[in-house]
Design goal:
globular
């Protein structure tokens, strides 16, 4: 197959890759982490003149600065396995896709300050049965937590290691995608490649002891 024919064939693999990625998802263990990262589709100097993603992407802001593109949301368990994923425009609130991401999850979901909201957290607990734990802001009153929850909340940075592998090793982010379909195919292939890694960043939680019944 010639290179031009191969490039023309790439968009037709989008549907099968989506179905295959769902088969690569891990299983919920009761301890999950949700995090978002920016995926820029162009250099910041070209933000004012987007063409390929003019109607799809949006301009957003992170702690580093402005970008034009999308936001990738991932939910992973304590073993580093991907449980759910969502792609939103760059200006979308991080809390918006969480109800769909937390569907069929249980236990505790650790997140950063971008997901902090007392009303939304209570709603997730009552409707989804998921207890969301986020760091508190500077002027907020401290709340009582188990020491294990405090330790796991600090270990949430494991997700940043996963994003680092996705961006540097799998190269899911590049500044000049030619077509939206090719961008999605590249993103899906990067996620699938990570799911097949034999060793993943993990929290290495001790197994719960089991006691024989009398």
């Amino acid at each position: 197959m010639s290179y031009s024919r191969f490039v023309a064939f790439i968009p037709s693999t989008l549907g099968p890759l989506c179905a295959y990625l769902r088969q690569c998802y891990g299983s919920c263990t009761g301890t999950s982490c949700v995090e978002a990262t920016a995926l820029a589709v162009c250099h910041n100097r070209r933000i004012a003149q987007p063409k390929v993603f003019a109607d799809l992407a949006a301009q957003g802001r992170t702690s580093v600065g402005w970008f034009f593109g999308f936001t990738l949301h991932l939910v992973v368990n304590d073993r580093g396995e991907v449980l759910r994923g969502a792609l939103t425009p760059g200006n979308t609130d991080d809390r918006k896709p969480v109800p769909k991401l937390a569907h069929s999850l249980f236990g505790k979901l650790f997140a950063d300050k971008g997901y902090l909201s007392a009303a939304v957290t209570q709603e997730w607990l009552t409707t989804l049965g998921v207890h969301v734990l986020t760091p508190l802001k500077r002027k907020m009153k401290p709340c009582r937590l188990l020491w294990t929850d405090k330790l796991l909340r600090r270990k949430r940075a494991m997700v940043e290691t996963i994003f680092d592998q996705l961006k540097n090793s799998s190269q899911i982010e590049h500044s000049r995608p030619r077509r939206p379909s090719n961008f999605l195919v590249n993103l899906l292939c990067g996620l699938i490649a990570y799911c097949h890694q034999p060793k993943k960043p993990a929290l290495h939680l001790p197994a719960c002891p089991t006691f024989p019944l009398a």
